[in-house]
Specification:
21% of the residues lie in helices and 22% in strands. The protein has helices spanning 7-12, 60-76, and strands at residues 20-23, 27-31, 39-45, 84-86, 102-106. Strand 2 (27-31) and strand 3 form a beta hairpin. The longest helix has 17 residues, at 60-76. The chain is globular, with a radius of gyration of 13 Å.
Length: 108
């Protein structure tokens, strides 16, 4: 699949709007447009990776950056008491956008 049709790649390239809450050289984080919790953020790699099934050993540092960003954002958003993370993989796993992403959910 070409990244030309990937909605998350278009957000990374700033061709589509998003309510961005964090960005570094490898990761972009923004609010989910259909939140399932008071805090519902999407963490995506800027590099297009279709799903968790497509992660390569060369992506180890990128995956580490994503994981270490989760608790940092949880603290910023008042989720010190706990939060959920979801990674949906493939159509049968519930993945709707073909770009690897982590859901960070929490709050009451």
């Amino acid at each position: 699949m070409s990244t030309d049709y990937c909605i998350f790649c278009k957000i990374v390239e700033k061709h589509l709007p998003a309510k961005i809450v964090y960005e570094d050289d490898q990761v972009l984080v923004f609010h989910d447009i259909h939140p399932k919790a008071p805090v519902h953020l999407l963490l995506i790699p800027k590099k297009h990776i279709k799903s968790l099934m497509e992660v390569e050993p060369s992506d180890a540092a990128l995956m580490s950056q994503l994981v270490f960003t989760l608790p940092k954002l949880a603290k910023i958003h008042g989720l010190e008491a706990g939060f959920k993370t979801h990674i949906y993989t493939g159509k049968q796993g519930g993945q709707e956008i073909d770009h690897l992403h982590f859901h960070l959910l929490g709050g009451t």
